[in-house]
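SAMPLE LOG
Freezer: B-3
Tube label: C17
Construct: single chain, 173 aa
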Amino acid sequence: MLKIVGSILIITGSFAWGYMKCVNAKDRITQLNTIKKVMIMLRGEIKYAGTALPDALESISNRIAMVFAKDFFLNVSKELNQMSEKNFKTIWYENTNKYLKTSALNITDLGQFKNLGDNLGYLDKDMHLNTIDLYLEHLNMDISLANGEIAQKCRVYKSVSLAVGVFITIIII
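STRUCTURE (predicted):
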């Protein structure tokens, strides 16, 4: 009886791991789409409203619902307004590491987002807009690729995790 209960727990746990990997992959797509919306809003704030970057970031943080992004943009805005000795790139990197590490974004996504901060914080309005446009192109490609792979990845995650659970159960019994 104990072996049966243990087997069920192992199989259920391994399948749950695969299911969570699938949920994480879907969350990544949702978060990439949120960042895309935020970048479009930032582009609009800079291009049409002529808002300075710190004010644009604060305005955007008040309009988005996803907590990791809201906190990130609000904190970057506050640090920029404090006129600290840190440059924009440093503030962007530190906040990316602080607020976005717990997100579902992968290392490549975080790297591209950090690189956005390399070019966003200096020069003129046109440079800001061109940098945002380039980032949006990369983001659109990543979202398209992720959407195309999600069904297959979820199937693989669930199948492999279930197979591993059954395999471990067979070894134990």
